[in-house]
Amino acid sequence: MKRIGYFLSILMAALGAAYGDQFQFKAEFAGGLTVIPYATVSVTGNGKTFRGRTDKLGRATINLPAGVYDATLTENKNEHKATLTIDGSKTLKTVVAKP
Q1: Contact 65, 48 (CB under 8 A)
Q2: How far apart are CA 18 and CA 21, in angstroms?
């Protein structure tokens, strides 16, 4: 019975990460780019929604099917917007969000 539970948890993790694209969100600040740490992330499009947070380096893994999505990041009452392309690749993509 434990083996079945272990197998199912591995399978669910693999399926859930099938479209786990990784993004690092940045914004223009003082003439340069800076990461957007600990921001709330809301991604919508294609009838799907993702909500999460960036880490201290402005990174987030977004698990949605392939497609183009609109993202809104909120940190310290500041709102940033970006367009994301989910393609199923595991490479870190840098996105510059606009106010």
Answers
A1: yes
A2: 9
Amino acid occupying residue 12: M
Q: Tell me the H-state helices in 17-90.
A: none
Residue-level pLDDT at 44: 97
Predicted TM-score (pTM) of the model is 0.77
Parts of the chain with a pLDDT under 70:
1-19
Alpha helices in the chain (DSSP H): 2-16
CATH code of the domain occupying 2-97: 2.60.40.10
Q: What is the pLDDT of residue 29?
A: 86
User: How far is the CA of 20 from the CAs of 45, 47, 57, in angstroms?
Assistant: 16, 17, 17
Distance in angstroms (rounded) separating the CA atoms of residues 9 and 34 = 37
Residue ranges of domains in the chain:
2-97
What pLDDT score does 4 carry? 59
Look-up of token digits 């780019």: 33
**Is the distance from CB of 85 to CB of 65 less than 8 angstroms?**
no
